[in-house]
């Protein structure tokens, strides 16, 4: 793997998994093949890909230098996905699970069929939509140092992004039920501290030697080194209902990576928090989002979500300031704390609409709204991974 040396601002990019729903009934529909066959041209290097199920589609966005660029890329990617879906009589919606009951259809590639054969219902139930943020790193060693230092903050990202309260026609009781479903995979979740790139590679090899994961692509850590790009890939978040929330969380991830890399270069050691404690923190974040307590990454004790989020922003303040994004990120985080995550918005919408299908209809419109800030149409030159 060849790594680029990051400049003052590290480039970052996002991948969003979106549900495909019928444009009239708003129920999930296996339309990805038709949608991709009729997809429009890529927009500013954003493009569409298959995911595991025929009822979803993945948008791979353009690498960005600023939060404003990321927001523009996310909006453009969502428009691209919706245009493709519309050609198949569907819409693309940013929901991390299907609110209404559905029997999903696997995309029939040899790899996915092998995964279904090995993992059974875990694979059959895996109609979930995540939000992955890639941030540029200068080397594998730096990347692993970053992983070791951001791990305690990842549950806070899950809480901020939580957008999957419903499952199979009922309220799951969780803000992110996607994370509960995702946790069925044997390699999913938090990791212990690796300490070095060779140690990271040994751990991946050890897991593969068990014969349980099908291949290296099934190393589903909450954050990992990308196999194909010179990036750290943070995978813990739900796809966000609002594009603005997604861009803000992506900017937070970039700042976390920058902060961790600086700490590593300064010789500051990662906090020695066991993965078992991080699993508790992630469970709590998955359960209540920002509507209850979260586990404070420093003290390990439950504190009000606003206090924990404030600790996160304080931790990355310098990196946000260097990017000129302190106020923009504060606005997004303030909006999530005041107005609720996607999970809270979904619950309110379902109550107001009187049905889950009605909630999905509202979610489609919210997925594609422009908000108060007009989109930037010109992006930075894409980073070549």
- Write down the secondary-structure element order: EHEEHEHHEHHEEHHEEHHEEHHHHH
Beta-strand residue percentage = 5-15%
Structural class, please?
alpha+beta
| Number of E strands | 11
| Unreliable parts | 1-7, 373-385
Integer-rounded radius of gyration: 19 Å
How helix-rich are the residues, as a percent range? 40-55%
How many helical stretches? 15
Largest sheet entry:
7 strands, antiparallel
**How many angstroms does the end-to-end distance come to?**
10 Å
Global morphology:
globular
Mean pLDDT: 92
Write a brief structural summary.
This protein has 385 residues and is of the alpha+beta class. The chain is built from 15 helices and 11 strands.
Overview features:
385 residues; alpha+beta; 7-stranded antiparallel β-sheet; two-stranded antiparallel ribbon; 15 helices; globular; disordered N terminus
Describe the protein.
By secondary structure, the protein is of the alpha+beta class. The chain is 45% helix and 14% strand. The protein has 15 helices and 11 strands. A hairpin with a 2-residue loop joins strand 6 (166-167) and strand 7. The N and C termini lie close together (10 Å). 49% of the residues are buried.
Question: What are the SSEs and their pairings?
Answer:
Layout: E1 12-22, H1 32-37, E2 47-50, E3 56-60, H2 67-86, E4 90-93, H3 110-119, H4 121-124, E5 130-136, H5 140-150, H6 154-161, E6 166-167, E7 170-171, H7 177-182, H8 197-209, E8 223-225, E9 231-238, H9 243-265, H10 275-288, E10 293-295, E11 302-304, H11 305-315, H12 317-323, H13 326-339, H14 342-353, H15 356-368
Antiparallel strand pairs: 1-3, 1-4, 1-5, 2-3, 5-9, 6-7, 8-9, 10-11
């Amino acid at each position: 793997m060849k790594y680029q040396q990051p400049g003052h601002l590290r480039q970052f990019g996002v991948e969003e998994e979106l549900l495909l729903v019928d444009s009239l009934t708003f129920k999930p529909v296996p339309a990805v093949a038709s949608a991709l066959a009729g997809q429009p041209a890529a927009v500013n290097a954003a493009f569409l890909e298959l995911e595991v199920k025929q009822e979803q589609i993945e948008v791979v966005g353009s690498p960005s230098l600023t939060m404003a660029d990321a927001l523009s890329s996310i909006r453009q990617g969502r428009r691209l996905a919706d245009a493709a879906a519309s050609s198949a009589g569907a819409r693309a919606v940013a929901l991390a699970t299907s609110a209404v009951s559905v029997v999903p259809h696997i995309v029939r590639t040899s790899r996915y069929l092998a995964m279904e054969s090995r993992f059974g219902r875990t694979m059959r139930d895996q109609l979930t939509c995540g939000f992955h943020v890639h941030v540029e790193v200068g080397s594998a060693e730096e990347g692993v140092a970053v992983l070791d230092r951001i791990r305690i903050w990842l549950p806070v990202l899950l809480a901020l992004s939580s957008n999957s309260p419903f499952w199979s026609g009922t309220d799951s009781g969780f803000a992110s039920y996607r994370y509960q479903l995702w946790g069925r995979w044997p390699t999913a979740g938090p990791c212990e501290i690796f300490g070095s790139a060779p140690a990271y590679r040994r751990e991946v090899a050890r897991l593969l030697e068990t014969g349980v994961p099908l291949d290296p692509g099934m190393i589903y850590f909450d954050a990992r080194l990308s196999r194909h790009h010179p990036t750290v890939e943070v995978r813990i978040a739900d796809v966000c209902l609002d594009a603005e929330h997604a861009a803000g969380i992506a900017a937070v991830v970039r700042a976390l990576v920058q902060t961790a890399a600086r700490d590593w270069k300064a010789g500051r050691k990662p906090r020695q928090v066991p993965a078992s404690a991080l699993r508790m923190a992630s469970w709590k974040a998955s359960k209540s989002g920002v509507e209850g307590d979260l586990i404070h990454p420093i003290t390990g004790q439950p504190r009000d979500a606003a206090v924990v989020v404030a600790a996160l922003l304080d931790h990355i303040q310098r990196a946000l300031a260097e990017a000129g994004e302190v106020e923009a990120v504060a606005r997004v985080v303030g909006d999530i704390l005041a107005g609720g995550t996607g999970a809270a918005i979904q619950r309110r919408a379902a109550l107001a609409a009187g049905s889950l299908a009605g909630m999905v209809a509202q979610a489609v419109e919210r997925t594609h709204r422009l908000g108060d800030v007009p989109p930037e149409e010109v992006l930075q030159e894409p980073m070549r991974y």
